[in-house]
Amino acid sequence: LERQVALDSGVLAIAEHEGKIISTDTDKIILSGNRDTLSIPLVMYQRSNKNTCMHQKPQVQRGKCIKKGQILADGAATVGGELALGKNVLVAYMPWEGYNSEDAVL
């Protein structure tokens, strides 16, 4: 459940193609694919709509080969692509009256 919540939150940077990491910096990751080179920008201390700080930390090293869908950078409250809320946190998932639009993690 923690991995799926982190993926659905949109705070992770995920590889869209296979390739090799050319360089990793605090503000971007450069990925070399089959015929093209992609520059993946990372969020650095930006303000969100809810007045919180958004930040992404790169999780891949230079020279590593990656696959499509692999986690490139962690976001807020995630470690290794999984939700990290702390020790001994009890989480309950509750759909409200069967509607998906009002689901919540409490």
UniProtKB/TrEMBL annotation:
<dbReference type="InterPro" id="IPR015712">
    <property type="entry name" value="DNA-dir_RNA_pol_su2"/>
</dbReference>
<comment type="similarity">
    <text>Belongs to the RNA polymerase beta chain family.</text>
</comment>
<dbReference type="InterPro" id="IPR007120">
    <property type="entry name" value="DNA-dir_RNAP_su2_dom"/>
</dbReference>
<keyword id="KW-0808">Transferase</keyword>
<dbReference type="GO" id="GO:0000428">
    <property type="term" value="C:DNA-directed RNA polymerase complex"/>
</dbReference>
<dbReference type="GO" id="GO:0032549">
    <property type="term" value="F:ribonucleoside binding"/>
</dbReference>
<feature type="domain" description="DNA-directed RNA polymerase subunit 2 hybrid-binding">
    <location>
        <begin position="15"/>
        <end position="106"/>
    </location>
</feature>
<dbReference type="InterPro" id="IPR037033">
    <property type="entry name" value="DNA-dir_RNAP_su2_hyb_sf"/>
</dbReference>
<keyword id="KW-0804">Transcription</keyword>
<keyword id="KW-0548">Nucleotidyltransferase</keyword>
<dbReference type="GO" id="GO:0003899">
    <property type="term" value="F:DNA-directed RNA polymerase activity"/>
</dbReference>
<dbReference type="Pfam" id="PF00562">
    <property type="entry name" value="RNA_pol_Rpb2_6"/>
</dbReference>
<dbReference type="GO" id="GO:0003677">
    <property type="term" value="F:DNA binding"/>
</dbReference>
<keyword id="KW-0240">DNA-directed RNA polymerase</keyword>
<keyword id="KW-0934">Plastid</keyword>
<dbReference type="GO" id="GO:0006351">
    <property type="term" value="P:DNA-templated transcription"/>
</dbReference>
<protein>
    <recommendedName>
        <fullName>DNA-directed RNA polymerase</fullName>
        <ecNumber>2.7.7.6</ecNumber>
    </recommendedName>
</protein>
